[in-house]
């Protein structure tokens, strides 16, 4: 039986999974607090007959389906939400607030990156694969990963003994697969050999001046002005120091200083985010940022050196050629012209690859092949209308307060894509 027939015969009704999606969307959990998503996934996998292991690196879990000799394929879905106030106006929109365990601050919470769709899709994939197990051989691992948004969930699962025989004993995969819903037309999927997601590095930098009365600036060292010079100067790195054929982004997302207008504060804090797609550019850009911050502080007469605190670091996502070509061929057969084998790289970053690069392999080292792809979640008609008007920026993107995939055909496409990819190695 071929993959298309397996899907027609064994893919379940998605109506129950649509209800799961809406419930998860209404009740999101911040990073490290993904309890509902984890409980929902674990209960479902157990009910299907998967061997379930929970509390891996926080709320992470795996469901194992051993089905005879063959390859082991690990499928990954992430589960956490974001501190965003939802503005979609949907009947199932999140109105939730919760205290973030990271800083103790109460925040609005929203699944603004589509991880609720990832969870719902993976649950349907798990049912499809167990119902069709008479048609394939091998082992499937459905992995639900927490804390992706802060770039530490995959690391935490590895550190907690995900692949350790004496701890969680996840079967060693031959290949690791993952996907992400993106602001592309629903029903479409995109693959790409090689670089697919950028590395991301974030820092909190505190610069030090000397505070005082706003009427006597000559007796102070103004960190606000210092920060302003740094912010402007950082924008020259990409335009003047990065090869125009390369891609890089330097963003200052937060500048905090002072409490009132008539006091020059003693310090300012800048939060910087960097995206790069090659190791060489990453090294160059990070070095330039540190050089500029140091030089501007010295030029302003700062009272001491800036304090650098790394806040997150995402690795590169570089799809394995043979693995990706295998999946791309299967996608082209299944999706036809709705599959783009030369899809543009993601604008964001991912910690997905760590689940593959940290796998103990047969040669005594680490690392197995992996592939990560995208599937669309935007209303196709609205997407096409925006494109015709030259206004694709009007299509809500991931992390936007307006981002909410149309449930269908997004969910059906995600299920098909993951099943087709998995069976390409199991069938």
UniProtKB/TrEMBL annotation:
Q: Which annotated residues bind Mn(2+)?
A: 113, 115, 149, 180
Q: Which Gene3D superfamilies match?
A: 3.30.70.360, Zn peptidases (3.40.630.10)
Relay the cofactor remark from the entry.
The Mn(2+) ion enhances activity.
Q: What is the top-level taxon of the source organism?
A: Eukaryota
Q: Which UniProt keywords apply?
A: Carboxypeptidase, Hydrolase, Manganese, Metal-binding, Protease
One GO MF term, please?
A: carboxypeptidase activity
Residue ranges of domain Peptidase M20 dimerisation in the record = 202-298
Which cofactors are named for this entry? Mn(2+)
What's the short name of a Pfam family annotated to this entry? Peptidase_M20
Asked whether the UniProt record includes Secreted among its keywords, one would answer: no
Instruction: Show the InterPro entries listed in the entry.
Output: Amidohydrolase (IPR017439), Bact_exopeptidase_dim_dom (IPR036264), Peptidase_M20 (IPR002933), Peptidase_M20_dimer (IPR011650)
Q: Note the PANTHER family from the entry.
A: METALLOPEPTIDASE, PUTATIVE (AFU_ORTHOLOGUE AFUA_6G09600)-RELATED, PEPTIDASE M20 FAMILY MEMBER
Task: Write down the NCBIfam families for this protein, in alphabetical order.
Answer: amidohydrolases
Similarity section: Belongs to the peptidase M20A family.
What name has this protein been given in UniProt?
Answer: Metal-dependent amidase/aminoacylase/carboxypeptidase
Q: Which organism is it from?
A: Hyaloscypha variabilis (strain UAMH 11265 / GT02V1 / F)
């Amino acid at each position: 039986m071929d993959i298309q027939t397996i899907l027609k015969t064994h893919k379940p009704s998605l109506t129950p999974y649509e209800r799961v999606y809406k419930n998860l969307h209404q009740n999101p959990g911040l990073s490290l607090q993904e309890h509902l998503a984890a409980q929902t996934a674990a209960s479902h996998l157990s009910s299907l007959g998967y061997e379930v292991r929970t509390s891996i690196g926080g709320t992470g879990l795996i469901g194992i389906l051993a089905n005879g000799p063959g390859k082991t394929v690990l499928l990954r879905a992430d589960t956490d939400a974001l501190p965003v106030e939802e503005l979609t106006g949907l009947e199932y929109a999140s109105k939730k607030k919760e205290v973030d365990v990271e800083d103790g601050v109460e925040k609005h919470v929203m699944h603004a990156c589509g991880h609720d769709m990832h969870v719902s899709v993976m649950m349907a994939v798990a049912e499809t694969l167990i119902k069709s197990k008479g048609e394939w051989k091998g082992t499937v691992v459905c992995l639900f990963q927490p804390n992706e948004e802060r770039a530490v969930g995959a690391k935490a699962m590895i550190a907690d003994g995900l692949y350790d025989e004496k701890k969680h004993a996840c079967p060693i995969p031959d290949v690791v697969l993952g996907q992400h819903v993106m602001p592309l037309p629903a029903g479409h999927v995109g693959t790409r050999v090689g670089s697919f997601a950028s590395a991301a590095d974030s820092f909190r930098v505190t610069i030090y001046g000397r505070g005082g009365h706003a009427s006597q600036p000559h007796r102070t060292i103004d960190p606000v002005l210092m920060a302003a010079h740094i912010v402007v100067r950082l924008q020259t790195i990409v335009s003047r120091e990065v090869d125009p054929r390369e891609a890089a982004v330097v963003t200052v997302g937060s500048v905090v200083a002072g409490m009132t207008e008539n006091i020059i504060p003693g310090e300012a804090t800048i939060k910087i985010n960097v995206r790069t797609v090659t190791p060489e550019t990453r090294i160059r850009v990070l070095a330039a940022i540190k050089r500029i911050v140091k030089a501007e502080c010295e030029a302003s007469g700062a009272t001491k050196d800036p304090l650098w605190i790394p806040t997150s670091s995402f690795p590169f996502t570089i799809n394995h050629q043979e693995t990706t070509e295998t999946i791309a061929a299967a996608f082209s057969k299944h999706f036809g012209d709705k599959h783009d084998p030369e899809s543009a790289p993601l604008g964001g970053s991912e910690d997905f690859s760590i689940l593959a690069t940290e796998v103990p392999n047969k040669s005594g080292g680490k690392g197995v092949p992996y592939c990560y792809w995208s599937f669309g979640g935007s209303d196709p008609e609205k997407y096409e209308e925006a494109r015709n008007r030259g206004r694709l920026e009007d299509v809500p993107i991931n992390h936007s307060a307006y981002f909410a995939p149309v449930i269908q055909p997004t969910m059906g496409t995600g299920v098909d894509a993951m099943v087709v990819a998995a069976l390409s190695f199991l069938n």
